[in-house]
Amino acid sequence: HWNKFLAARKRVHRNLKSGREEYISNHLGEAIKENPKRFWSYVKRLNHDNPGVADFEVDGKVVSDSGLKSEILNSVFTKENLESIPEMRSDPTPGLGPLIISEQGVLKLVSSLNRNKAWGPDQVPPWFLKTFAADITPILTDIFQDSIDRGTVPRRWREANVCAVFKKGKKSDPANYRRISLTFVASKILEHIVHSYIMKHLNDHNILTDCQHGFRAKTFTEMQLILTLHDMAKAIQSSSIHAVVLELAKAFDKVPHRRLLWKLYYYGFQGPLLTWLDSFLTQLFQSVVCEGQTSSQSPVTSGVPQVAGFNPTQPLKLPKECKGNCIYIPRAVEAEIRECGLGSVFKERVSVPWKEFNVKQHGFVRRILLDMLVLLT
Q: Which single residue of 127, 137, 282, 353 could bond 321 by disulfide (Cβ 3.0 to 4.6 Å)?
């Protein structure tokens, strides 16, 4: 019997090894192109990475209960400061016309859904919508158009399940987790349509600065890095270089809703579309899902949803007020700084306009740059 056991164990190990090799060659090789998520999940398992949420330290106490952790994560997101809201005024930019949604366009978007993506609170998977695209498209088109015309997002589409993804720092600190919103797949399709409409307006009227490489088609951060290295290599041949690199913490979570809506109005977004964007931004509710436990539902009072699809307002997270305000100084010495008037230029072209949009971040950036000016002089 012992020999039979050893022979059986050997066959099992051999079959497991051949099955693993077949899985890697036949499935993971294709997954790199078609479903990268599956590939990297396999790599994480090999490295014994734990992508979950660690135990928290709150007021000196360790919190390990999944339900309590979900409530803590739900409470750490920032709230907007409604003081000093800028006065509404219009930019010379022409306003937008009505958004007309075509059935053909919706069918194209539904048919191109990635069937492997996660679904939202309605638990309707993308593969279902994609399989029955021809039957569902007319209904979705009517719902989309009615939503835009009325200027309101359907109540259920304003609900999001949020999962926490660790960024960096101490895993026991709830503030070091990024929130990823899982919304309705149908809602993401409408967001894509609105996003494309907004981007066309921004590009047609040259509202976005060429220095912005994030959240724009045909641009990417690698291109920005190449341009930066080119400028630095060109400048270093004749002078020294002084650079300040700033990273604003919780860039998505701290976007002020009212100031963003003011900015949209300023650049020509008015009427039902602005009302729809108001509904999209200010009437969103979220529940945090942590290790199978769901927190209570709460309103999202600040930030823009960071979703897998397109957020309609992402391009305007960055201030156009900084457009054209990158000033190149051949030699950073006192004479040149006085001649360029760097301090006054910063105050007039960056400091004052940006303050209207984000008071808190403006103050931080202003202190950093002014301290830099003192060092240069």
A: 353
- Report the DSSP beta bridge partners of residue 265: none
Closest CA to 38 of 115, 126, 125, 120: 115
CB contact at 8 A, 315 and 197:
no
123 burial type by CB count under 10 A (0-12 exposed, 13-18 middle, 19+ buried): exposed
Q: Which residues contact 281 (CB under 8 A, 6 or more apart)?
A: 257, 260, 261, 304, 313
pLDDT (tens digit, 9 = 90+) per residue, 16-31? 888 887 777 777 666 6
- Computed from CA positions of residues 13, 19, 25, 27, in that sequence, does the dihedral angle turn out positive or negative? negative
Instruction: Single out the residue of 254, 253, 248, 276 nearest to residue 264, CA to CA.
Output: 276
| DSSP string covering 118-168 | ---TT---HHHHHHTHHHHHHHHHHHHHHHHHHT---GGGGEEEEEEEE-S
Using the predicted structure, report yes or no on whether residue 15 has a pLDDT greater than 60. Answer: yes
pLDDT of residue 115: 82
Tokens, residue 217: 């088609």
Q: How far apart are CA 194 and CA 279, in angstroms?
A: 13
Torsion angle of C-alpha atoms 35, 36, 37, 38, degrees rounded to 10:
70
Q: Do residues 80 and 197 make contact, with C-beta atoms less than 8 angstroms apart?
A: no
Percent pLDDT > 90 in the chain is: 15
User: Which residues neighbour 191 within 8 Å (Cβ) at sequence distance 6 or greater?
Assistant: 280, 307, 309, 310, 311, 312
pLDDT tens sequence across 155-169 = 888 888 888 888 788
What is the rounded distance in angstroms from the CA atom of residue 262 to the CA atom of residue 260? Answer: 5
In this predicted structure, the answer to whether residue 338 has a pLDDT above a threshold of 50 is no
